[in-house]
Amino acid sequence: MTVTPFSLASSETQVRKADHLRICIDEDVQFRQISNGLDRYRFVHCCLPEINRDEIDLSTHFLGKSLAAPLLISSMTGGTEQAHLINTRLAAIAQRCGLAMGVGSQRVAIENPALKSTFSVRAIAPDILLLANLGAVQLNYNYGLEQCERIVDWLEADALILHLNPLQECIQSQGDTNFRGLLAKIEQLCQRLTVPVIAKEVGNGISAANAQGLINAGVAAIDVAGAGGTSWAKVEGQRAQDGKQRRLGQTFADWGLPTAECILAVRSVAPKLPLIASGGLRNGLEVAKAIALGADLAGLAWPFLKAADESETALDELTEVLIAEITTTLFCTGSANLQELRDAHQLQRVP
Fold it and tell me: What are the FMN-dependent dehydrogenase domain coordinates in residue numbering (predicted)?
């Protein structure tokens, strides 16, 4: 795929966004030694469901918004023409199918406000749960309440994702690695921002201890974004010009906590917290496993990115099959809705 820079003033951040998009679509940057952990679980099959498949209800609520299915199109991109096209396609399918959607980091739009249109999808998707996005570490680099409010307002977002990416920043050439005192700044932001704050990793997972600290700071929800999917160490290693950074990307390519472990860890300290499971989910069966383990929503990025880059038809087909896979799992466990799936305790750890 050829990524064309947006026809406005370029920036280092914009070039990096274009690189990320190209590498994630065209290169093999998936985890290899670590899975998302969901393969270690299987459902007990119910041969007599006693329900009508056509009446199965996948609807749910998250942060006050109604969703037709427990699916989040996870945060991916923005800042280039190709990213704008992808975001537009993703927003359209989210609106049509009642899904949630996050956008990629909006830092590039803060640096160059002319690029904010590459993220703007509210006109296409007026009813969806829409999530703004900024790297939490930017709070240590002259970003604060004003910038966060600005990107929320630009997007007309329902909540703000603060993504946590210490490993990615270490591998990224000239990455922002000053995380000192960041939790206190997250707490201040949670107290003052006009929308809820969601804490999210980018593919290396959130532990119970880190989750507890973030909850104490006031985050409204957590997205565990565990290991097992796209490795941002690999992504940054591939785009690095420096030999040391490329070596770091290889060394830490499989670093992180598997998604399934993260779900259980966060639930152990926060039984009721709104929880998103993402990180290497590739089909509706894995979505259902994540829900059964305790997640409220399941986020997928790479499958939606690949489909949206291909065509609107591919995106429609992917969404249709994901919903069919989730529905089939509920049917074959005798669950009429998501709550029954959670309550049935039909998910077993594989010996």
Answer: 16-106, 169-344
**In the 8-state DSSP scheme, what is residue 30?**
B
Beta strands (DSSP E) in the chain are 41-43, 60-62, 65-67, 71-73, 100-102, 130-135, 159-164, 197-201, 221-223, 275-278, 297-300, 347-349
pTM: 0.94
Q: Where are the domains of the chain?
A: 28-40+62-331
Q: How many residues are given for the chain?
A: 351
Say how many CA atoms lie within 13 Å of 196 toward its Cβ. 20
pLDDT per position in the chain (351 positions), as tens?
333 333 333 467 778 778 787 878 888 889 998 999 999 999 999 999 999 999 999 999 999 999 999 999 999 888 888 999 999 999 999 999 999 999 999 999 999 999 999 999 999 999 999 999 999 999 999 999 999 999 999 999 999 999 999 999 999 988 999 999 999 999 999 999 999 999 999 999 999 999 999 999 999 999 999 999 999 899 999 888 899 999 999 999 999 999 999 999 999 999 999 999 999 999 999 999 999 999 999 999 999 999 999 999 999 999 999 999 999 999 999 999 999 999 988 999 998
Binding-site residue ranges for FMN: 74-77, 105, 133, 200, 230, 280-282, 301-302
Query: For the chain, how far is it from start to end, CA to CA, in angstroms?
Result: 42
The two three-digit tokens of residue 142, written as one number = 């002259």
Q: Using CA atoms in the order 126, 15, 206, 262, what is the torsion angle rounded to 10 degrees?
A: 70
Residue numbers belonging to the annotated binding site? 16-17, 74-77, 105-107, 133, 168-169, 200, 230, 280-282, 301-302
Q: So what's the architecture of 28-40+62-331 in CATH?
A: Alpha-Beta Barrel (3.20)
**Is the separation of the CB atoms in 256 and 268 below 8 Å?**
no
How many Cβ atoms from other residues are within 10 Å of residue 79's Cβ? Answer: 34
Residues tagged in the binding site annotation for substrate: 16-17, 105-107, 168
Amino acid of residue 128? I
Annotated binding site for Mg(2+): 169
